[in-house]
Amino acid sequence: MGRVAPSAETAPRVRLAELGDASDVAELLSQLGYPCTRDEAAERIAVLRDDPRHYLLLAELDGHACGLVASHTRYSLTHGADLTRITALVVARSCYRQGIGRLLLREVERRARRDGVSRIEVTSNSARLEAHEFYRRCGYADGSVKFVKTLGD
């Protein structure tokens, strides 16, 4: 995943991830801080692909993977409607500042609107200050604080 500059003929495009994208998905998840193997990524793609309320989208620039976003739509008791939650968003370091992250967000928003969803949520690690600013620039407002408890054996 070296630095990729768009050619005059092509622009970044977004498509559903496929099993054959497992190596790229594994690499992108590793860059996000969630290392996994190609085989683990293939399993994850298969699970998401088989659930119509999940999307795993891959951004490509001149045929090279440059980012991904995963989202899940569910019914919210508190809002009385479906909402979409972005569960992962990453752009390859070599493709920063090329509009890939914004393109991925806009595609999730487009699909959510198409599916009748009126609210999108995204969580981001409290240490990822640049990501927080990115979301704010894209029109997302600060929301609830998330609490996590890891359940061990």
TrEMBL record:
- Protein known as: Global regulator CLP-associated N-acetyltransferase
Pfam families named among the record's database cross-references: Acetyltransf_1
**SUPFAM superfamilies xref list:** Acyl-CoA N-acyltransferases (Nat)
InterPro entries per record: Acyl_CoA_acyltransferase (IPR016181), Bact_Acetyltransf (IPR050832), GNAT_dom (IPR000182)
What are the alphabetically sorted keywords of the record? Acyltransferase, Transferase
- Recorded GO MF terms: acyltransferase activity, transferring groups other than amino-acyl groups
The UniProt record lists the N-acetyltransferase domain at: 12-153
